[in-house]
Amino acid sequence: MNVKGIHHLSAMTGGITVNYQFYTEVLGMRLIKKTVNQDDTSVYHLFYGDERGNAGTELTFFDFPGIRQNQKGVSSISGTSLHVRNDAALAYWIERFTEHDVTHSPVIPYAGRNVIFFEDPEGQELALVSDETNSGVPGGTPWEHSPVPAQYGIIGLGPVKLTVRKPESTLAALRLMGFTEKSRIPALVAGQEDIIIMQVAEGGSGGEVQVEPRDDLAIARLGKGGVHHVAFRIEDEEELLAWIEVLNREGLQNSGFVDRYYFRSLYFREPNGILFELATDGPGFDTDEPFETLGESLALPRFLEHQRESIEDHLRPLVTKRD
C-alpha cells in the first residue's frame, strides 16, 4: 500500500501562451495533453512531461486569466524541482538559461545533490536537480523532438518542498503513505528548524519530499506562480479504493474516487492544509490521442465530449499544433 513516488504537480498560471512557450520552447518538455480543468471547464489544464507523459514526469497548469500573484507562506507547496541525468546537463542548462534570460542561480550543492534554482516567467520557484549521484525511482524519457538535446533533457519531477507551521502533522500524513525520514539539512532561514527529507519507495529524486518548518510566515495565498496540489503514484484502481478505506479509518476527509479519465484519483488535505492527491499510473495520455500528436488539439474526456462546442467557445485561443 505504499505510494510509488511523485505522480504530478499542478500549478497556476495567468498567461497560458507564455506558459506554453516557456515549458516547451525553453525547458523542452513535451505538451502531452491540452485539455480543460474538469471542475471548471472554462479554463485550460495543460500537462507537460516526458515523451509519453509517464507518471512521475508531469508538471501541469490550470489557466486562470487575471489571477493574482502567488503570495508565499506556510501551508504551501513552496518548491518544485525537475531532474536531469547528470552534472554535465546542469552545465548545459546554465548556458541555456543565460541565453534565454531566465532568472537562475549558479550550480550549488543542496540536500546532497547539485542544483540550479530558477524561476518561470510568473515567478514560480523551480529547481533543476542532477542525478549524477542519484539512485531510486527512475526518470522518464525526453521527447526526441524537443529543442533540448536528449542527453540534457528533463527526465521527470524531482523533490517537492512543503513549507508548514506544524511539521509533525505533515510528517504523520507522509508516514501514513509509506514515507520514511532520510536525513535533515540546515534551515535556509536563520532561527528556523532543520528541513526534514522524507523518501518513499526506491527514494531518489522522484521519491522525495522536503518538509520545511517555518514559524515566521503567514499562510500562503495561492495565485499565478503557485502550486495547487501534489499527486503521489499508486498502482491501480484496486489500490485506490483501498486507500479510501485507510483515509476514512484515519479520520481524514477525502474526495472519494474521482475518474480523471487519464488516471483515477483521490484527494485529501494533510493537517497543515496542503492538498494531496493519490493517482493511478494509468490508463495514460495516449488513451484518446495517437502518441505522435499528443497535445496538438483540445482533448476532452468522453464524459465532457458532448459539451465540446460550448467549452471551445469559452476558451482563449492557444495554438499547439506542431509543424
Automatic annotation (TrEMBL):
Residues 5-131, 156-281 form the VOC domain. InterPro entries: Extradiol_RC_dioxygenase (IPR052537), Glyas_Bleomycin-R_OHBP_Dase (IPR029068), Glyas_Fos-R_dOase_dom (IPR004360), VOC_core (IPR037523). It comes from the Bacteria. Pfam families: Glyoxalase (PF00903). Keywords: Dioxygenase, Oxidoreductase. GO terms for molecular function: dioxygenase activity. This is Ring-cleaving dioxygenase. It comes from Paenibacillus antarcticus. The lineage of its organism: Bacteria, Bacillati, Bacillota, Bacilli, Bacillales.
